[in-house]
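Example 3.
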Amino acid sequence: MSIMTEFTRRDRVFEFLAPTQSPVDVRHGPILYLEDVTVSFDGFKAINNLNLTIDDGELRCIIGPNGAGKTTMMDIITGKTRPDTGSVWFGSRHNLLNMNEPEIATLGIGRKFQKPTVFEALTVFENLELSMAADKRVFPTLTAALTGEHQDRIDEVLDIIGLSDLRERLAGILSHGQKQWLEIGMLLMQKPRLLLVDEPVAGMTEQEMERTAELLTGLAGKQSVVVVEHDMGFVRSIARKVTVLHQGSVLAEGSMDQVSADPDVVKVYLGEDD
Ligand SMILES: Nc1ncnc2c1ncn2[C@@H]1O[C@H](COP(=O)(O)OP(=O)(O)O)[C@@H](O)[C@H]1O
Ligand SMILES: [Mg+2]
């Protein structure tokens, strides 16, 4: 199978390279599907029979105490960690356990780590431009001027992340929150279908948290977003469906009110801190 038919989406850049159908087929189900996934580290089950389903366009919050397996779960989805057993599917066509990390990323799964990793010596605009160029699908454009389509996408993303007025500013002098938004913008340049975001508001001011809530809720619908977060106030402000992880499994799932009222959840998590 050629790289082009496998990885090029119709809405991405070169029409003539594109297959007639998006490679992520969600007509018959969710965008992400984990079934009976188990991972052991030295005999300790960090993930233990985990079942998780994320719908296309959904915004899901994942909470759970330290060591619950949240980061390991993201590592499994992105191909960084291989489960011992279970299945992991992206749409109905992509068995992620048969793919490596770069292949999974190219499929449209973007991951935002906790620490911002923007290029500080470049402007906001250049960071977005570079993240597009780093995308192998648009590699040929490195040698050409930015097309109108690319310019439009950068403008669109600048608007989404609220940094249009700061486009010429060096990323190094942005606030912590602005850097986080820029990094989300860099992921958005590649039009991911699923965005995994690990503790987005750690270290942010109240105002930045509010803006981040708007940003993430605004993304839902256009792509699926999975947010792992410790800050309960923040989770409450953006939550639709919440999954509580505990000891590598789903302890509870539902609205924030439902899971907060769940006695098991209160016992293992909500009563513990916050
Ligand atoms: N590479 C690893 N080697 C050994 N143990 C690990 C490794 N990664 C995670 N763990 C253990 O697995 C459990 C789940 O960790 P993690 O997924 O980081 O939890 P969370 O992100 O919910 O805090 C923890 O007990 C952690 O110590
Ligand atoms: Mg973690």
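The chain has two domains: 3-10+29-118+174-269, 121-173. The two ends are 50 Å apart (CA to CA).
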